[in-house]
Amino acid sequence: MDDNLQASILIVDDDRAAIVAMQEILASLGARLVAASSGEEALRCVLEDDFAAILMDVKMPGIDGFTTAKMIRERKRSRYTPIIFLTAESGADLTPMFRGYQAGAVDYIQKPVIPEVLRSKLAVFVGLHDMNRMLSAELAERALTEQRLRSSEENLRALAAHLQSVREEERIHIAREIHDELGQALTGLKFDIGKLAKTACRDDPDTSQKIGGLSQNIDRIINSVRRIASGLRPEVLDEMGLAAAIEWQAREFQRRTGVRCTVDIEPGFADPDKERSTALFRIFQELLTNVARHANATRVTARLADDDGLSLDVEDNGRGVRSEELEGNKSLGFLGLRERVLAFGGSIEVRGEEGKGTKVSVSIPNLQQQPTFHA
Ligand SMILES: Nc1ncnc2c1ncn2[C@@H]1O[C@H](COP(=O)(O)OP(=O)(O)OP(=O)(O)O)[C@@H](O)[C@H]1O
Ligand SMILES: [Mg+2]
Q1: What pLDDT, on a 0 to 100 scale, did the predictor assign at position 100?
Q2: What is the pLDDT averaged over residues 28-36?
Q3: Does 236 have pLDDT greater than 80?
Q4: Ligand in nearest proximity to the CA of 315
Q5: Is the distance from the beta carbon of residue 318 to the nearest atom of ligand 1 less than 6 Å?
Q6: Long-range contact list for 233-238, CB < 8 A, 24+ apart?
Q7: When you count CB atoms within 10 A of the terminal residue's CB, does the N or C end of the chain come out lower?
Q8: Count of CB atoms within 10 A of residue 240's CB?
């Protein structure tokens, strides 16, 4: 066994011959045997080492066995170390034995000892000690694993938040490129075609009609470009803020799906910072997508407020989500929402009632308002 893990037994006796005899009796236990010839030396030993058990002679010059035991018990490191007293005295007076137990003894043995009895008593303590060490090592290992898990979870969460913001930045960038570059080029083209139609084809109705058709096509493409850009990142969110974007999204949803969608925005609601606005807007979009795909609803009501933190509630009157649909990897959409909300220290609650509908409540702490001081 590793020297550090090997159990140790402390033998305290002022009689050198008694120590040697004990060492012989206990040799087969396989424990490390440490000898101390006085109470003082024993106290030094327990400061440096943990012992599976201590064999203590009662009568010693200097501090006697009882006092030494008491002092050992008072120290944190050795508070629970089992102490076995050995005494040469025999007789009817039980007082010393009681004193021994009061000083924290687990056993009180009279000399001469019976080797087998002492060995088997100590074997129990050595076994307990070994088991204790194994348990402590296991506990330490478990604590370490838990800590590793926690930190890897934190890393994953940070990574998810980072990916989310990279994705949003990319969307903004692509939306802008499409809108500005393509949009401008198409508008230019439409303008040129308009001029062409006026000048070159005045007397050629057929060509004029074809050019008119081309111009209409370009209009359609311009509309598609706007729609695609706005799908990636609606301008209204950047230009008019969260409340306006949520209202716009609700109207769009109603127009596209035919499901009635109303939004109640708390009077005086102030749009939060860009990150929170983006998160709540994307969550709203995701929840509306769920309604369209799964709910079979005819009506959606949403509420946006800032009372003790930002809150967004979206409720539909559809079939109602079942709790088993929210478990495991069947609900990656909700998992993403939860991560998104957790990145702000917020929470999300999903409740479904069969045949009645689904209600999702999201809350995110708002940025700390600067306190205003009045002179
Ligand atoms: N409003 C709703 N009404 C009824 N059922 C719903 C509603 N929203 C979600 N569900 C159910 O919960 C499941 C999990 O939703 P979640 O958004 O996590 O995944 P998803 O929409 O299936 O896939 P995605 O990852 O594309 O979002 C859905 O598959 C659906 O069965
Ligand atoms: Mg979904």
Answers
A1: 81
A2: 96
A3: yes
A4: 1
A5: yes
A6: 233/168, 233/171, 233/172, 233/175, 234/281, 235/179, 237/277, 237/278, 237/281, 238/172
A7: C
A8: 14
Does domain 236-364 sit in CATH 3.30.565.10? yes
Whether ligand 1 lies within 6 angstroms of the CB of 288 is answered as: no
Can you give the C-alpha Rg of the chain in angstroms? 41
Q: How far is the CA of 318 from the centre of ligand 1 (A)?
A: 12
Report pTM. Answer: 0.71
Domain ranges of the chain: 8-113, 155-232, 236-364
Give me the DSSP letters along 213-241. Answer: HHHHHHHHHHHHHHHHHHHHS-HHHHHH-
| 8-113 shares its CATH topology with 236-364 | no
Decide: helix, strand or coil at residue 36: strand
Distance from Cα 223 to the centre of ligand 2, integer Å? 27
Our answer on whether the CB atom of 325 is closer than 6 Å to any ligand 1 atom is yes
Closest C-alpha residue for ligand 1 atom 12: 325
Nearest CA to ligand 1 atom 9: 290
pLDDT digits (tens, 9 = 90+) for 148-166: 999 999 999 889 889 989 9
Average pLDDT over residues 275-299: 97
Taken in order 166, 171, 174, 179, is the CA torsion positive or negative?
negative
Between CA 86 and CA 100 the distance in angstroms is 10
CA–CA distance, 98 with 108 (Å, rounded to integer):
9
Structurally, at CATH architecture level, domain 8-113 sits in 3-Layer(aba) Sandwich (3.40)
- The answer, yes or no, to whether residue 29 has pLDDT greater than 50, is yes
Residue type at 345 in one-letter notation = G
> The dihedral of CA 350, 352, 358, 359: what is its sign?
negative
Q: Kindly give the distance from the C-alpha atom of residue 296 to the centroid of ligand 1, in angstroms, as a whole number.
A: 12
Q: Is the pLDDT of residue 228 over 70?
A: yes
Per-residue confidence (pLDDT) for residue 1, from 0 to 100: 45
